[in-house]
Amino acid sequence: EAQVTQNPRYLITVTGKKLTVTCSQNMNHEYMSWYRQDPGLGLRQIYYSMNVEVTDKGDVPEGYKVSRKEKRNFPLILELPSPNQTSLYFCASRLTGTGRAFFGQGTRLTVV
Amino acid sequence: ELKVEQNPLFLSMQEGKNYTIYCNYSTTSDRLYWYRQDPGKSLESLFVLLSNGAVKQEGRLMASLDTKARLSTLHITAAVHDLSATYFCAVDKEEYGNKLVFGAGTILRVKS
Q1: How confident is the model at residue B69 (pLDDT cuts 50, 70, 90)?
Q2: Which residue of B has its CA nearest to A36?
Q3: pLDDT-derived band of residue B112, with 50, 70 and 90 as boundaries?
Q4: Does residue B9 contact residue B27 with C-beta atoms inside 8 Å?
Q5: Residue A35: its pLDDT value, please?
Q6: How far is CA A81 from CA A15, A63, A78, A107, in A?
Q7: Residue B23 to chain A, least CA–CA distance (Å)
Q8: Is A102 on the interface with B (CB under 8 A)?
Q9: Count of Cβ atoms closer than 10 Å to residue B43 Cβ
Q10: Which residues of A touch B96 (CB under 8 A)?
Q11: In what order do the strands lie in the sheet with A19-25?
Q12: How many CB atoms lie within 10 A of CB B85?
């Protein structure tokens, strides 16, 4: 089954404790991205990757890092999480830079 | 800069009624997308609209695109409770790295 898998689904952490949210897709898609969803703001892109070893900032990259060492995986790293990063995070993949995006199930992160 | 505005942001309607959600975007885009999100769930792709005058229909939902007016509509016919969800429109454009720029979303509640 074609899917984008994120882990964990829920995470509560403390300020400053590094964390990684994993994202994996099984569709051989080139384009992957991370979004955060906040009430009233829709989804905003954090980072994207057009292919292995190619990443770029989206609209709200501050406080986040990503890597793309393999085509299927695109982890999101928060090295020093802060409460303003409390949000719902989605990973998405697309075959190329166009076409419909497939979204993961989401990760609800709370930073206290 | 790509910006997307949806209205209304909240819509409460009776079963059997018709209504339209509007999506305006700020500059020419390459593609327009409609997504559905059920509470606590991921985003599901509904429609991809590519060209002026494009119309797509699935069940009680019909989406259209007017690129000259920079407007897309999502029309709901004879609403049923199962259509209750949040609906997002999004656009992308190659010169912006093909990132999806989302509207704030329209929360639709269909009352029996």
Answers
A1: very high
A2: B102
A3: confident
A4: no
A5: 97
A6: 5, 7, 6, 15
A7: 13
A8: yes
A9: 26
A10: none
A11: A4-7, A19-25, A76-78, A65-66
A12: 20
